[in-house]
Specification:
The chain has 259 residues and is mainly α. The protein has a single domain (50-253), classed as Ferritin, core subunit, four-helix bundle (Ferritin, Up-down Bundle). The protein contains 10 helices and no strands.
């Protein structure tokens, strides 16, 4: 067997797909930022003193993040069963692990902040629009609508989380920041998978674009309403909030979809 090229992007396309969808590649990707961490952050990282109002707002935000990560966990696990080939199943299996870890670290962060029953608190504080997004995503998975479900999860949901988490990390307390930065690194990989998978399918089946346009028109309002539910609580001024929405929209539009 020949030596692997120094730049993975110089590989034969088929070998590239096999490599980046493998558990081996996943392990190499995550170990650099998970080694030495406990529940997503350095164990001896000092907590910042938060007043009760700041803590309450952070708890609400983290509860909403947990709703999104639960949707991604349930969605990716369901997608394994309908994935079109083994390499895609392997990648989604790594994503299931990622999403499960994200949910775990968020729940542990809630516990650090004094939440005794994280499940109940997530149910109580979760944005109705985000809960509805989760329901619609899982409906797409249950109907075995592969392209629409991948679009909803690995493009729309992941782009939403990437935009919010990255902005939140800029002004978050040290522990929350480190947790979010670790999650963001995974989100980049998930978005890349979704864009690659759908990009190839759109080239061979252009009619799929119309179906994805329908999905976007249905889900965009839920995403943008969810932004409204959390942006104030992560400290964004009214002037900054439209830019966060634009960041999400740009990520989705990379596939050529316009509102």
């Amino acid at each position: 067997m020949g030596q692997e090229p120094a730049d993975i992007h110089d590989m034969d396309p088929q070998l590239f797909q096999e490599r980046v969808h493998s558990f081996e590649f996943w392990f190499e990707a995550v170990q650099g930022y998970l080694a030495g961490k406990t529940y997503g952050h350095t164990p001896d990282l000092k907590e910042e003193d938060l007043d009760e109002d700041e803590k309450d707002r952070l708890i609400t935000v983290l509860c909403n993040y947990a709703v999104g990560e639960t949707a991604a966990l349930e969605g990716s696990s369901g997608l394994v069963g309908i994935a079109p080939n083994r390499n895609t199943k392997l990648f989604l299996a790594t994503q299931v692990v990622d999403e499960g870890r994200h949910l775990e670290v968020l729940i542990h962060r809630l516990q650090d902040l004094g939440v005794r029953d994280a499940e109940a608190e997530i149910d109580r504080r979760g944005s109705p629009k985000l809960v509805e997004f989760r329901r619609r995503l899982l409906d797409l998975v249950a109907s075995k609508d592969w392209e629409a479900a991948i679009f909803a999860q690995n493009v729309i949901l992941e782009a939403m989380e990437f935009a919010v988490f990255r902005r939140h990390a800029e002004g978050a307390d040290p522990v929350t920041r480190e947790v979010l930065l670790g999650i963001i690194k995974d989100e980049r990989r998930h978005i890349g998978f979704g864009e690659n998978e759908l990009g190839r399918r759109l080239q061979s089946a252009p009619h799929v674009r119309a179906r994805l346009g329908e999905v976007r028109r249905e889900l965009d309002p839920l995403v943008l309403a969810s932004f409204d539910d959390v942006t104030e609580k992560i400290g964004l001024s009214r002037d900054e909030r439209p830019e966060l929405a634009r960041s999400y929209l740009r990520a989705v539009e990379r596939l050529g979809f316009t509102p």
